[in-house]
Amino acid sequence: MARIQAEDLFEVKVEIIKLMAGLDPTGDWMGRGTRALENSRTSTGEYSLEKLYEKLEDLQRGGVKSSTFWEFKKGKVLLRIDSDENSSA
User: Fold this and answer.
1) Residues near 8 by Cβ (< 8 Å), separated by ≥ 6?
2) Dihedral through CA 45, CA 49, CA 51, CA 57, nearest 10?
3) CA-only gyration radius of the chain, Å
4) Mean pLDDT over each residue of the chain, to the nearest integer
5) Euclidean distance between CA atoms 85 and 87, whole angstroms
6) Which domain of life is it from (predicted)?
7) Cα–Cα distance, 70 to 74 (Å, whole number)
8) Residue 15's closest CA among 34, 42, 40?
9) Are 14 and 55 in contact (CB under 8 A)?
10) What would the DSSP string read from start to end of 65-85?
11) What is the pLDDT of residues 17-54, one digit of tens each?
12) Is residue 68 within 8 Å of 51, Cβ to Cβ?
């Protein structure tokens, strides 16, 4: 049962990160996006599966206007730096 729950947690996090990458292309969501999904108020440092599904639904419904978008955007995701831009400078 624990393995199934871990797989479910992983899958919903992947969906959230993909969605956030599309909504906020300036963030390094594919590289460091999981840091924004950390929850320091829990003993495990993670949101529950139910809470993650709520946040995914909020993102799907409200996009950049959702409270979840801004919560995650304020998280620990660094700006994405294009290597092409840096190499031409």
Assistant:
1) 49
2) 130
3) 14
4) 83
5) 6
6) Eukaryota
7) 6
8) 34
9) no
10) GSHHHHHHHTSSPPBP--HHH
11) 999 999 998 888 888 787 888 877 777 778 899 999 99
12) no
Structural contact between residues 68 and 59, judged by C-beta atoms closer than 8 angstroms: yes
Element (H, E) at 56: helix 49-62
Letter string b/e over residues 62-72, b meaning 16 or more CB atoms within 10 A of that residue's CB: eeeebebbeeb
Where do we find the tokens 């995650």?
A: 72
User: Six-digit token pair at 56?
Assistant: 């995914």
Residue 63 has pLDDT above 80, yes or no: yes
Phi–psi pair at 26, nearest 5 degrees: -80, -15
